[in-house]
Every structure is written in structure tokens, then in C-alpha cells.
């Protein structure tokens, strides 16, 4: 695929620009140009999703490796909790990721450009859903339709709704964006509301971490 | 000098554990990582009077760490990736799960060691230290556009190498 020039209308952005876009590291002008491009280019949308998936996988792996190192550095420290720890990382990544995805989604559905996509990890687990562990929010593919008011409830601070969102597979969520009935379109949250929701979700992740510890 | 030393000590109190963690991923064994951090501390105390505050003390410390790590790597004969000294206890209650996880993280460290140093640096700063591109640029001493392209290439290469070891992201 030729991605010669970000600035050229219609041309696909370069791979490293798409990667930087996914990282939330572009200037407003370039980000906006890529954003406009993504609205029309399925190929680049798919590529961004792929880049995000790679990024979140690497981030989760680094997190686990760093956790191991810290545990090993503590005299008498217990071994890290293995898979459970990775699940937790995935869960936390998802907590941030889903709201990033929702931000992107709303942005693509409307003309609002996110002020800065959160670069927190986005995890789209390809493995089967792990078994639930007490006190740990883990990834589980949703089985039923996302209720139209779930997002509103999550934005209003409803922890259950936030957890439900956190359990959604990002890819699944993106697929669902095709169905307008799934997500509210009349009451589109502002960027500030999305940022507040993101922060609440980060708070949720911290609470989950607290439970884990 | 005592005051300068005190200031740098404050910085190390704050950032020392993180520097040590980054050093462990930049170098091939834990002993070398400790030496790197000690050397960084000594160099920072010495260089503090010349620190002009054009970058943050945080990225300044990392720039010293990276410089010393590069120098050490150039000096040493390249040995096979001796990540064994970072051997960690098996994780989790289930030995099979723990072993699988350990395999993945060990593969990550091995792949990192196989990458070109410039790629390893940006990956460690980005993922481990959660640095923004501009901070990475300061610490590494390259333009931000170089960070962008280098980091992209590094992510792809690391993912490819992990994939070769059967670790799909």
C-alpha cells in the first residue's frame, strides 16, 4: 500500500504516521488529516486496528515482564501471579482501550475530533476468554447486545456499566459501530465528557488493581 | 558539591528504581544493570553543574543512562544473549501457566537484546517508562520525527521476532 504523504488529500498516510496516530502523538493538523482520511479508508482503519493490537500486546508483555522484575528485586518477594497478572493487565488495558475505541467511534460518526487519543494500551485478546477469578476483572466477550444506555450509564459513572464496556472486545465494539441502534447517536458526548469517562475508567482500573493486590 | 550531590540524590531517590528497571531491559544481565545505574548516578553528580535545564532532569538522567549503556555495549565483546541472570521464579500456582508466562517474558527480553540498540532504547522508554515521543527524543538525542519512525520500526520488528517464537500479540 502506498502511503506517501499524510498531508495529501486522499493519499494514505505513512505507516509510522498511522502508528503515531494510534499512539496519540501527532500534531493537531496531521491528526485531523489522518482522522478525515480514516473516515473514508477502510484499509487504513484496519491497519490502525492492527497497529493498536500489536501495541497493546507489546505493552501488556512489557508490563508483565516489569512486574516480574520488580517482584524478583524484592527480597523474599513472592512470585508474580502469572496468568492472573497478565489477565489483570489485559483487563486494565481494556478498561482504557474501550473508551479510546468509543472516542474514536464517536469521532468517526460525528465531526468531532478527539483532542488527543489516549495512548493507553488497547488489548484485543484473541485467546478464549479466561476463567473469571474472584476480584479480578478479566476479558470476556459479550454475549448479548450492548444496551443503548450502557454508554450513557458508564459516562455517568455507573461502575457496572463501565465494567460491561470493559468486557467488550474492541473489535466487536467496532463491528457494532455499524449498527446505529446499538449506540446512542442523539446525545453524543463531548470530548470533555469522554475524557472524564476515560479518567473514571482509569479509576476503575486502579480499584481493580487494589482488589487484585 | 555536597549540595549538588544532594540534588542528584533526590533525583535518584525519585527515579532510581525506574532507572534500574530500564537498565535491566537495556542490558543483558542484572549485574550489568546495577553497574549501569551506579555509573549513571556518578556521572549525574559530576555533570550536574553543567546541567542547564534545557531538558527535564528526568530525561536528562535517561540520556546519561543510555549513553553509558551504549558505551558499555561497544566496549564489551558481544556475548550470546545472557539473559539467564534475569532468571525469575516460575509464576503462579499452576506450573504450566507460570512456565508459559515466563517463556513469553523471557522471549521478550531475548528479542530485545537481539534488536539494534537504537530500537531497544525507544521501546524501553516508550513501553517501560511510558515516555512521550518528545521525551524520548530528548533522552535519546534525536529529532522527534526520528523517534516516530524508529519506534514504528522497532515495534514491528519486535512483534515479528516474538511471532517467530510463537508469541502472537
Would you mind describing this structure in some detail?
The complex is a heterodimer of chains A (213) and B (169). Chain A is mainly alpha-helical. Chain A has one domain. Helices cover 59% and strands 0% of the residues of chain A. Chain A has helices spanning 15-23, 28-40, 42-73, 82-109, 150-155, 159-167, 170-176, 191-212. In chain A, helix 3 (42-73) packs antiparallel against helix 4 and helix 4 crosses helix 6 (159-167). The termini of chain A are far apart. Mean pLDDT of chain A is 57; it is low at 1-9, 77-92, 106-146, 167-190 and 204-213. With 169 residues, chain B is mainly α. Chain B has two domains: 1-80, Rna Polymerase Sigma Factor, Chain: A, CATH 1.10.1740.10; 95-169, Orthogonal Bundle (Arc Repressor Mutant, subunit A), CATH 1.10.10. Helices cover 73% and strands 0% of the residues of chain B. In chain B, helix 1 (2-26) packs across helix 3 and helix 5 (117-128) crosses helix 7 (144-164). The longest helix of chain B has 25 residues, at 2-26. The interface between A and B is large, with 35 and 39 residues.
